[in-house]
Write a structure and sequence with these properties.
Number of domains: 1
Strand content: 15-25%
Radius of gyration: 28 Å
Helix content: 25-40%
Order of helices and strands: HEHEEEEEE
Oligomer: single chain
Largest sheet: 4 strands, antiparallel
Shape: elongated
Structural class: alpha+beta
Number of helices: 2
Strand order of the largest sheet: 3-5-6-7
């Protein structure tokens, strides 16, 4: 006949001690302290890549629009446009009759600088330009157009600012 393990006669010993619970909590806290910085860094990288792809998609949309309509489109730096407007005598900045000057809208708090302005010809060919994607006051990515197809590629150094860009 199988025998069962002996049952403790002391009912006070049925649970965990305070020391055992504190040791487990300390292990959880150390694990969280080790994992959290790398998780936050991964989330920041994922967000910056998502913003880059949003930026690239909107530029591609403007390129398709220029190709479809046969009208040139100019992508400008919104901050430089605001500064030119503020430094001028209060007059609105002149635009082409067809309203071909455009800007890209990024999620908050992201913004971009672009120098020189990206000109997209009626056939969809783009001029050379450099852009910075900025989160708050930190330049996260520096991009440069490669070829005439309006594709931006990431440069190794993210600290480079495009010439003629405005600063905050």
């Amino acid at each position: 006949m199988p025998t069962s393990p002996p049952i403790s006669a002391d009912p006070a010993r049925a649970g965990f001690s305070l020391i055992e619970i504190l040791v487990v909590l300390a292990i959880f806290a150390l694990s969280a302290a080790i994992i959290m910085p790398s998780t936050a860094r991964m989330l920041d990288q994922a967000t910056s890549h998502a913003v880059f792809f949003e930026f690239q998609k909107q530029v591609s949309d403007y390129r398709r629009e220029a190709n479809r309509t046969g009208m040139a489109v100019r992508l400008t730096d919104p901050e430089a446009a605001r500064l030119e407007h503020a430094q001028g005598n209060g007059e609105a900045r002149e635009q082409d009759d067809d309203g071909s000057e455009r800007t890209v809208k990024l999620r908050s708090p992201w913004r971009y600088t672009l120098a020189p302005a990206l000109d997209i010809a009626a056939g969809g060919v783009c001029s050379a330009s450099t852009a910075n994607l900025i989160n708050g006051d930190r330049v996260v990515m520096t991009l440069r157009t490669s070829g005439g197809d309006c594709r931006f590629s990431r440069l190794q150094s993210a600290a480079e600012r495009p010439l003629g860009s405005s600063s905050r």
